[in-house]
Here is the input.
Amino acid sequence: MPSGPLTGIRVLEFTQIIAGPFGCQNLADMGAEVIKVEPAEGEPWRQFSQFIPGESKWFQTLNRGKKSLVLALQEPEAREIVYRLMPEVDVVVINYRPDVAGHLGIDYETLKALRPNLIYVDNTAFGRKGPWAARPGYDIVAQAVSGLMVGEAKFNRETGAPEAISSTAISDYGTGLVIAWAVCAALFHRERTGEGQAVATSLLRTALAFQNSLVFDLPAADAAVHARMDRVHQLQAQGASYPELLAAHNPLAAIRAANIYYRPYQTSDGALVIGALSPTLWAKVRAALDTDFLGIADPAFNPLDPAWLAEAQRRVAETETKVRAGTTADWLARFEAHGVPCGPVNFPEDMVDNEQVLANGMIVELDHEISGPQRQVAPLMEMSASPLAAQGSSPPLGRDTEAIVKSAGYSDDEIAALRARGIIN
Here is the structure.
């Protein structure tokens, strides 16, 4: 039986790829009944890198605990099934292209007429207004448009072309969390007032929020920022290369050369990181490294002074050599003994067996009815009174179609006829 703070809430999910599915998976982990509507071939993430027909790790990791309802939504009979389900639906989440909901008759106004206190979450790439309102977009586009990609400052050293943040789909996953948060907030509002509402989220808004201190114009403090951006815009007009623009955007990048306190280090058998962000911790770092080099703590700190910068780079190189001579375990023990926040650089594939992760229940074991046993990241939080739980693995395509359609009042003969016409799977 479902368990969690959202037990009894029914969600109809019209989403695909990452942001929407991740948001709805979090709702399922909180106990909501999540019905994922898919086309006959399945949503695109089912088809990406399939290891079994209709199944991929990408899909399975974003859709656990859900039910699968296959509908040919372009057909009026399929939309009628949605309409007949609506009186029992609390939440609709959609992240189709901006023009699709209205075309398919699953827009907010249409569905609200069938469930007046409906909570309807509409996720787009760039928001519903403005010149980009109708544009589709994925994480990499949101990275670029929002400035996240520039902030990462990665580029191909041979071609000078920008490189994306590739370790994760940061805008997508962040927006998935926003979707789940928004649903919980809207449900709380409805509990107090009886009112449903439309909620708008977007990849662009999330990506901007992740850069709060940069997307923040403060005239009293930003004279240097404005001058720097004037220079960037001049270079753009002159056709400067991307690396040249990055250099103008962050002329103090060399500050990293003087930072021994908040950075990764290579060791003799791997790597580790330390994170010290206060004068007290800086002193502990110096004690652990047995160095008198102050770096960014130096009262004479001036990375624009070539002589100061050259000396700082020499001292940092000495520190790097010292750390590289020891093992990760030895240096971690040393930093910990001095009270320095630190940790090893791990590979994500190893984390399913990590002692700290397992001790805190951060991995859940599930059994998929087609692909068998699996281990994946557990729900994102722990709650003492209404504990979350993975409500099962991801659903095979169309597994729950008949049961869901029957719950909408269709007879066995009607279901057979719908299946024969390709309206359902």
